[in-house]
Amino acid sequence: MNPDALLFSLRQLQLSLFISDMNASTTTPSISRQRAPAGIEHTTADWETWHCDSNTFQHRYVPGATFYVVKGRARLTFAHGVQLDIEAGDFVSIGDGAQATWEIYAPIETRYTYHDDGSAATRA
User: Fold this and answer.
1) What tens digit of pLDDT does each residue of 18-69 get?
2) How far is CA 27 from the centre of its chain?
3) In what residue span(s) does the (S)-ureidoglycine aminohydrolase cupin domain sit (predicted)?
4) Does 7 fall in a domain?
5) How far apart are CA 27 and CA 64, in angstroms?
6) Which residues, 6+ apart, have CB-to-CB distance to 84 below 8 Å?
7) Which residue segment(s) compose the domain that 99 sits in?
8) Contact, 78 vs 34, CB < 8 A?
9) CATH of the domain at 40
């Protein structure tokens, strides 16, 4: 093999290893759901309100968000395969970079806030 071809092959291998390493270090965004704690209405009173009656849509969380489900019911299916059913009274946190398809089963209303640092909030 001539030196130029060998150098080209080594650079291709380095690039492949670099891409593999990047993919291996990619983390799955955090997702959590729990029943909302007592007093959540007071805690989330100054958060933004969101309403949706649509059947299905996609959303990418950049930055991540935390929300309280005031009313309604939906299923979120994330790009990495996790499904999360949510309903009134749930407190949900989705980490930065998550992608989800929403299926609205009953008109939904949430109060939400975005994460400042890209992490998922775990409590109100």
Assistant:
1) 444 444 445 788 999 999 999 999 999 999 999 999 899 999 999 999 999 9
2) 12
3) 44-112
4) no
5) 14
6) 31, 33, 75, 76, 77, 78, 92, 100
7) 31-114
8) no
9) 2.60.120.10
